[in-house]
Amino acid sequence: MEKLKNYIYGEWIEGSGNGIPLYNAVNGEQVAISDTEGLNFEQALDYGKTVGYKNLSSMTFYDRGEMLKKVALYLLERKKKYYELSYKTGATHVDSWVDIEGGFGTFFTYSGLAKRMLPNTPFWVDGDTQRISANGTFLGTHILTPSEGVSIQINAYNFPVWGMLEKLSTSLLAGVPSIVKPSPFGSYLTNAVFQDMIESGLLPEGAVQLVCGEPGNILDYVQDGDSVLFTGSATTGRKLKSLPSVAGNAVRFNMEADSLNCSILGLDAKPGTPEFDLFIKEVRNEMTTKAGQKCTAIRRIVVPENLIGDVQHALSKALDQTKIGNPLSRETRMGSLVGKQQYDEVVRKINLLKAETELIYDGKHDLVDADYENGAFMSPKLFLNDKPFEKNISHDVEAFGPVSTLMPYKDAEEAAALAKRGKGSLVGSIVSYDNNFVAETSWKMASQHGRIFVLNRDSAKESTGHGSPLPTLMHGGPGRAGGGEEMGGLNGLHFFLQKTAIQGSPDILTAITKVYQQGAEKKYSDKHPFQKYFEEVEVGDSLETAGRTVTDADIVNFSNVSWDHFYAHTDATSLTGTIFDKTVAHGYFILSAAAGLFVSGKKGPVIANYGLENCSFFKPVYAGDTITVYLTAKEKINRGVKGRNIPSGVVKWLVEVVNQRDEIVCVATILTLVAKQSPFIDLNLKNIQKTLNGLTESTQPGWGKMSPQQMIEHLEHGVLVSLGEPEADKCFTPEEQLEKWQDSLYNHRKMPKDFPAPFLAEDEKLLELKHKNLEAAKQSFMDNLKRFIIYYKENPQAEHMNFVFGKLNKEMWELMHRKHFTHHFEQFGLI
C-alpha cells in the first residue's frame, strides 16, 4: 500500500515507521498509509524560518495576492481528480464542492482583496498618521510586517482541502511560511492538492511544507515569532496551548474547537409561513451535509414550545426523504462519516445524550449502493430535550455527526438564554420575519457567538446558509469554540503580522511608508503630474497652480448650477450669530475650482476620477479671496483589472487649497485611475517608419521561419483586413472562447512566440510575396497604415472581422495592431 509522502525542507520524504492505515469510508478498502516517523521537525521549522521567510517576506502584498490567484487557477484545472478522492472520504458531490472549490474560492477572495486594498510593498501602513508635535515636524504611524517565524497549521478531518486553504490564504498573503498538518483521515486528498501546489512552481521555496500523519513532537521546537493554528477538539486544543514551548515562548495560538451551534425558529414562523419551511430545510441541510461533520452544523434546534410537534413532524419527514449511501450515486444526498473510528466516537456521544434526553427520530434508511457493515454510515438522529434549562447534556456534549437536539422556548429572552448555554459557538442562526424579535434576540446572544446568521424570505434566495463561513467575515467564536478568529477579510492577516510604531519627521515617514506626509518635501518638475503614466508617478510629485480670485458671480452661479441655496451662500441678512462675516463660497465650489486649477486639459494617462477621501474645509472663502492649490502624489495602489479595461493603477493625490494669506482652507485626497505604460508600439507613423529603417533583407528572425519581407506583408495583410479589404468571412476561435480572446487585447501580456496563427496552415498564400522587394513592401505597408488611421477617424463606428478575435471596432483593432506589430518587430530584433 502506498505511503503518503511528506514535503519538508524542499523534499518529498516517506516516514520510516508502520504508519496509520487510511480507509475508504464508503466500502472499507484501504486507500493509503500516513506516516511521519523519523522526520526532522526541528529542521523543518528552521527551513521555513530561513529559506521560506526570506522568500515570502521579500514579496509585496500585491504580488502575494497575485500568487494566490495563480495557484487557485492551477488547482481548479485539476479539480476532477480531487473529487474522485473526496468521494472516498464519504463526501457527496455537494459536500466535495464546498470543500474543494470552496477552498479555491478562499484563495480567489484573498487575491482580490490584496489587489484592491493592499500595497505593492512588503509592508502595510496601518491607520492614519498621527501629528504628535505642535508644528507638525514630528509624526507617528504604524506599519505591519510579516512575523518572523513559521505558522504550524493543524487541521481537522472534515474539510481536507478547505481546512488547509482557508488558513494558507491568510498566512501566505501575510508573508509567513507554513507547515500544514492535516488529520491523517482524508489526508490523501490534502496530499494530492498539496502536490499540485508544489508542482505548479508558483510558490517560492520554503513557503509551505506538509506533514501527513501524527504531529509527533513538532510543537517542541516552536519559538518566539512562530504561530499555531489549531482546528479540532477543545480538549486537545487546550493541551497544545498549555505546552511549555507554546505558553513559554510567546507563540501565537489560534483555536477553532467544539461548537454546539443553535438555530432559533422565531415566534412568528408558524407552519405555512415561508420562514417555517426555510427553517426545516436549513436544519435538514445542516444535519446531513458532510454527514453532520461540520464545526458549524446545527446541534441545538430552538423552537417555540407550541411548535415542537410541528417541527418534529416536518423535520422527520424531510430526513426520511434524504437518501443516504454511496456518494457516487446520483440519488445520494448524504454520504458517510469519514471512518469507523469517528463512527464509534459519535455512537459514544449519542449514548451520553440518551442518558438525559429522548431519541425521537432514528431513521432506518436503506443505503444506496452501500452497506452499513463496510462503510461508516449513520442515519440522522434527532433528540428532544423537553427541559433545556434543567437538562444540560444537550449544551455540553457534541456528537460530531448527523445528530441534533430539539428544545422548546417561551419568549425572546429564553431563546437568547438557550443560545448562550452552548458556552461559546461559532454560529447561531435565527429564522424569523419579525424584525423586533430578531433584533432583541441577536444582540442578547451575540456575546457567545462568532457569527449570527438571520434567514427570512427576503434573503433566502441569495443566502449562503447557516453553515458557510465566508472569507470576508470572521470565522471563530468565544468560549468553547476556542476564541479564535480566522479569515474575516483583511483582519485575518493581522494574526500573522507584527505591528510597529514609526516616529519621525514628515520626510522620514514619507521615505519609510512610501506614503506622502504633509510637510514633507515636494518634488516639482516641468511635466504635469497628470501627464505621467502610473509607473512614472513618484510619491511626492507635486504641482503648484496659478491663483484664482473668487467672485460674487462665482458664488451666485454655483448656487444656480448646483441648486444649493443654503442661506450662508445666498442671504447676507441671515448671517447674524453664524461663523460667517458675509456670504461664503460653497465648499464644493472650492473643491471644483481647485480641480479646475490642477487638472491637465491635454489627453494623458489619467483615465478617470476614481473617488474622494477625507475632504475637510478649515476656513471660509469669501468673494475677493484668491485660492492656490498644491497637488501632491500621496500614494500609489497597484490594481488588477479584468475584461476590457485599460491596465491601470490608482494614485491618491493630496489636494491642499490655500488662500492669499497662505492659510489652508481645504484639504482633500482625490483618487485617479492612471494608465500603466503599454509595452506595445504606438501607431505613430514616424516612429514606425524609424523602426522599419532598421529592417534589411539580411535581418534574421529570433524565432519562426518568416523572411523580413514576408513579415512586413503579413502585417500589411492584417491592416487591410482591418479595413475590410478583403472582409474576413470566418473567425477561427470557437464562439464560447471569443469573449476571453477579445478581452486579452486590453491586457499588457505579449503574444506568445510559439503561437501559430490558426488560418496560416490553411492559407499558405499569405506567405507568398506580393511586392517586388522589401523596400516596396515597407512603403505599401506604411501607406495602408496611414489609410487605416484616416479610415477610423472618418468611420469611428466601423467594425470588421478578424480571423482570431472576431468582429472588432476601432479601439480593438488599434490594440490588436499594437500587439501584433510589437510581436513581429521583436521577432526581428527591431525593438
From TrEMBL:
<dbReference type="InterPro" id="IPR016162">
    <property type="entry name" value="Ald_DH_N"/>
</dbReference>
<dbReference type="InterPro" id="IPR015590">
    <property type="entry name" value="Aldehyde_DH_dom"/>
</dbReference>
<dbReference type="GO" id="GO:0016620">
    <property type="term" value="F:oxidoreductase activity, acting on the aldehyde or oxo group of donors, NAD or NADP as acceptor"/>
</dbReference>
<dbReference type="InterPro" id="IPR016163">
    <property type="entry name" value="Ald_DH_C"/>
</dbReference>
<dbReference type="InterPro" id="IPR002539">
    <property type="entry name" value="MaoC-like_dom"/>
</dbReference>
<dbReference type="InterPro" id="IPR011966">
    <property type="entry name" value="PaaN-DH"/>
</dbReference>
<dbReference type="InterPro" id="IPR029069">
    <property type="entry name" value="HotDog_dom_sf"/>
</dbReference>
<feature type="domain" description="Aldehyde dehydrogenase">
    <location>
        <begin position="12"/>
        <end position="499"/>
    </location>
</feature>
<dbReference type="Pfam" id="PF01575">
    <property type="entry name" value="MaoC_dehydratas"/>
</dbReference>
<dbReference type="InterPro" id="IPR016161">
    <property type="entry name" value="Ald_DH/histidinol_DH"/>
</dbReference>
<dbReference type="Pfam" id="PF00171">
    <property type="entry name" value="Aldedh"/>
</dbReference>
<keyword id="KW-0378">Hydrolase</keyword>
<keyword id="KW-0560">Oxidoreductase</keyword>
<dbReference type="GO" id="GO:0016787">
    <property type="term" value="F:hydrolase activity"/>
</dbReference>
<protein>
    <submittedName>
        <fullName>Oxepin-CoA hydrolase / 3-oxo-5,6-dehydrosuberyl-CoA semialdehyde dehydrogenase</fullName>
    </submittedName>
</protein>
<feature type="region of interest" description="Disordered">
    <location>
        <begin position="460"/>
        <end position="484"/>
    </location>
</feature>
<feature type="domain" description="MaoC-like">
    <location>
        <begin position="539"/>
        <end position="639"/>
    </location>
</feature>
